[in-house]
Automatic annotation (TrEMBL):
Family per record: Belongs to the aldehyde dehydrogenase family.
GO molecular function: oxidoreductase activity, acting on the aldehyde or oxo group of donors, NAD or NADP as acceptor
Protein name: Aldehyde dehydrogenase
InterPro entries on file: Ald_DH/histidinol_DH (IPR016161), Ald_DH_C (IPR016163), Ald_DH_N (IPR016162), Aldehyde_DH_dom (IPR015590)
Key words of the record: Oxidoreductase
Pfam name, any one: Aldedh
Stretches of the chain forming a coiled coil according to its record: none
PANTHER family: ALDEHYDE DEHYDROGENASE-RELATED
UniProt organism field: Streptomyces longispororuber
Length: 491
C-alpha cells in the first residue's frame, strides 16, 4: 500500500482536511507516496503553534539548540540511504546527486548551524563621549549590537532540492532561536516530512518545526499571509517572489528571497576552453538544468566561438540521458510533463527567433516513460531573444558571441552579461586572472565564479536585481534570520 503522509503541526502528525494527492516519480510516472493537502485553517494552526512555542524556544540556551541540530544531522546521516532513494524518486535526480548534493548537503548544513547556534551574537561598539545637553549630563556612552531572533519564519521551499534547500532555511533559523512553518514545494514534499521527523526524534520541542503541504495556491498564501508569521524565506521563481514581496510589504514582514537566475558565463579568447566547457556543461547535467545558479547564457569572444561550440556540442552529446537509478546516467528527467513541454517550447522558440539548434531539445528515443529532454545547445543567439533573456530552468544553453579586443572586449562582455533582469551568479573564464577579477567586480550579480562553478558555502549567497533579496549561507544566514538590537548605557 502506498504510504500516506500526514501534516506535522505542533509536534503531532495530523490528518489533512483536504485529503491526499499523488507524488509521482518523474522518471517513471509511478506513485512515490501520497502527500497531505492542508486546508488554510490547518496552515493557521501550524503558524499559531510556532507562535506559541517561540518565546520558550528563543530563550533556550544556544548549547541546547546546538545539541538538537547536531543530533538531527546524525539521524539524517543514519538514514541517508533511504532518504537519498526518496529524494531520487521524488525529484528524478540521479542517485549520485541525491546522495551527495541533496541528503549529504542537508546533513552538512545541520552540522554547520549546530556550530552556528553558539557563535557570538554580540558586537561591541566603540564608546562615545557625549557632552551635556538636552539628553542628559556629560557621559561616556557604551553600546553593543546584538542579534535577536526574528520570530516565526515561513520557509517556502523549491522543488529542485527537497533536502538541501529546506535544511538551508530551517537549520540557521532554529539556530538563531526562531520557530518555523515549512511549506514545501508540492512536487516533492515527502522528504521534508522525513526531515521534520528527524528533528522531532532529535528533541526539537513541539511547535518548533511545523510542516504543511498542498497543491492549492491557498496553502502557500495562508503561510505567507498569516499574522503569526514574522518573516518569509522563499526559494523559487521571480514572479512568485514578487507576489510574496507584496504581502510581506503590507505586513512589514522580513523577507529572504532566492529567486530566478540567468547566469552569464563570459569566456574570453585566452580561456582554458576545456575547463569552461566542463563548467558550462553542468547546466546540461546537474539537476537536468533545474538550478538557478547554472551558467545557461554563454557570452564568448569571437576568436574562440567556433571551437567552443564544437566542444560544447561534443560534451552534450556524450551525456547519457536515462533512468537516474542507473550508475552511468548523467541526465535524468525534469520534474514534470508540464515542465518538459515548457523546456521544449523554449527550444522551438529559440529556433523561431533565429538561433541554430546544434543538439538536443527533443525527447530521447527509448524513454517512453518519464519526463526526459535531451540537453540542448542553441548557437548564433542575439541579446534580444527571449531564450537569452528568460529563465528556462532546464538543460538548455544559449551562446552569444561578442567582438573586440582589450578593454573594449571587456566593456562589451560586461554589457552583454548585465543586460538582464537577473543577477544571481555569473562566471568568467580567462587565463588572465587580473582581467577575470576586474570583470568580476563589474558584473551585477550576487556571486561570480572565476574559472570555476564551485561554491564556497561560507560565502554570502543571494542575488542582485530580480534574483532576490538578502543573503544566506555561512554566518550570513544567521544574520538573515535575526534582527539587530542596540543596547546602550552610560557611565
Amino acid at each position: 500500500m502506498t504510504h500516506k503522509e500526514r501534516l506535522f503541526i505542533g509536534g503531532t502528525w495530523v490528518e489533512p482536511d483536504g485529503g491526499h494527492y499523488e507524488v509521482t516519480d518523474p522518471a517513471t510516472g509511478e506513485v512515490v507516496g501520497l502527500a497531505p493537502e492542508a486546508s488554510p485553517a490547518q496552515v493557521d494552526e501550524a503558524a499559531a503553534a510556532a507562535r506559541d512555542t517561540f518565546t520558550t524556544w528563543s530563550r533556550t540556551a544556544p548549547e541546547e539548540r546546538a545539541a538538537i541540530l547536531s543530533r538531527t544531522a546524525g539521524l539524517l546521516q543514519r538514514d541517508a540511504a533511504a532518504h537519498a532513494e526518496l529524494a531520487r524518486a521524488e525529484t528524478g535526480a540521479t542517485t549520485a546527486t541525491a546522495r551527495s548534493a541533496q541528503v549529504a548537503v542537508a546533513v552538512a548544513r545541520f552540522r554547520r548551524y549546530a556550530k552556528g547556534a553558539v557563535e557570538p551574537v554580540a558586537t561591541p561598539l566603540p564608546p562615545q563621549v557625549n557632552a551635556a545637553g538636552p539628553l542628559g549630563r556629560a557621559a561616556v556612552v557604551g553600546a553593543v549590537a546584538e542579534r535577536r531572533p526574528v520570530g516565526v519564519v515561513a520557509c517556502v521551499t523549491s522543488y529542485n532540492n527537497p533536502w538541501a534547500n529546506p535544511a538551508g532555511k530551517v537549520a540557521p533559523a532554529l539556530a538563531m532561536g526562531n520557530t518555523v512553518l515549512v511549506k514545501p514545494a508540492p512536487q516533492d514534499p515527502l522528504s521534508v516530512y522525513r526531515m521534520a521527523a528527524a528533528l522531532a526524534e532529535a528533541g526539537a520541542p513541539p511547535g518548533v518545526v511545523n510542516v504543511v503541504s498542498g497543491t492549492s495556491v491557498a496553502v502557500g498564501e495562508a503561510a505567507v499571509g498569516s499574522p503569526d508569521v514574522d518573516m518569509v524565506s522563499f526559494t523559487g521563481s521571480t514572479a512568485v517572489g514578487r507576489r510574496i514581496g507584496e504581502v510581506c510589504g503590507r505586513g512589514m514582514k522580513r523577507q529572504l528571497m532566492e529567486l530566478g537566475g540567468k547566469g552569464a558565463a563570459v569566456v574570453f579568447a585566452d580561456a582554458d576552453l576545456d575547463a569552461a566547457v566542463a563548467g558550462i556543461g553542468t547546466t546540461f547535467s546537474f539537476y537536468s538544468g533545474q538550478i538557478c545558479t547554472a551558467p545557461t547564457r554563454v557570452i564568448v569572444q569571437r576568436q574562440v566561438y567556433g571551437p567552443l561550440l564544437e566542444k560544447l556540442t561534443a560534451y552534450a552529446t556524450r551525456l547519457k540521458v536515462g533512468d537516474p537509478r542507473e550508475r552511468d546516467t548523467v541526465v535524468g528527467p525534469v520534474i514534470s510533463a508540464a515542465h518538459r513541454e515548457r523546456v521544449e517550447s523554449y527550444v522551438e522558440l529559440g529556433r523561431e527567433e533565429g538561433a541554430r539548434l546544434l543538439t538536443g531539445g527533443t525527447r530521447p528515443r527509448g524513454l517512453d516513460r518519464g519526463h526526459y529532454v535531451a540537453p540542448a545547445l542553441l548557437a548564433d543567439c542575439a541579446p534580444g531573444m527571449r531564450v537569452v533573456r528568460e529563465e528556462i530552468f532546464g538543460p538548455v544553453v544559449v551562446v552569444v558571441p561578442f567582438d573586440g579586443e582589450g578593454e573594449a572586449a571587456e566593456d562589451t562582455a560586461v554589457a552583454l552579461a548585465c543586460d538582464t533582469e537577473y543577477g544571481l551568479i555569473d562566471y568568467v573564464w580567462s587565463r588572465d586572472v587580473a582581467r577575470a577579477f576586474r570583470v568580476a567586480r563589474r558584473l551585477r550579480a550576487g556571486g561570480v565564479g572565476v574559472n570555476t562553478v564551485a561554491r564556497n558555502m561560507e560565502a554570502p549567497f543571494g542575488g542582485f536585481k530580480s534574483s532576490g533579496v538578502g543573503r544566506d549561507c555561512g554566518s550570513y544566514a544567521l544574520s538573515a534570520y535575526s534582527e539587530d538590537q542596540a543596547v546602550v548605557w552610560s557611565g
